[in-house]
Amino acid sequence: MKNFIAAIVGVALMVLATPARAYVVEITTSIELASVADKDQLRDAVESAIVDVLTNAIAFSPTVVTIKDARVVADRMYIFLVIADADGEKTLETIPAERRAPSDSESAREPSE
Predict the structure, then answer these.
(1) For residue 79, what is the domain's CATH number?
(2) N or C: which end of the chain has fewer CB within 10 A?
(3) What average pLDDT score do residues 37-62 get?
(4) pLDDT given for residue 43 in this prediction
(5) In the sheet where 64-73 sits, what is the strand order?
(6) pLDDT tens-digit profile of 17-35?
(7) Does some domain include residue 111?
(8) In which domain, by residue range, is 70 found?
(9) Would residue 109 count as lying in a domain?
(10) How many angstroms from the chain centroid is the CA of residue 35?
(11) Number of compact structural domains in the chain
């Protein structure tokens, strides 16, 4: 009987508990480099692209916006962003830096014999 009551209480707690919501998004945007002549124009174009993502693609209020990487392919710059809210920021802090994915050069290495 005690096990049955404990099971009922456990199920009730699971039903009533609300999950913690932490938003963390990795998103890519790009800018055209043909119209960029100097560093100031590049900075303005990158800021404009980030504001556009925050305005049109993100449905939560971010507390952290980080440029993870940027790559130039042909005449475009691709900007990889990590965006998080306050709870997502705490989640990111708990992920150890050692658990990063291997870079392209590391995964392309052949195994030693």
Answers:
(1) 3.30.1660
(2) C
(3) 93
(4) 94
(5) 24-32, 76-84, 64-73
(6) 666 678 999 999 999 999 8
(7) no
(8) 23-88
(9) no
(10) 28
(11) 1
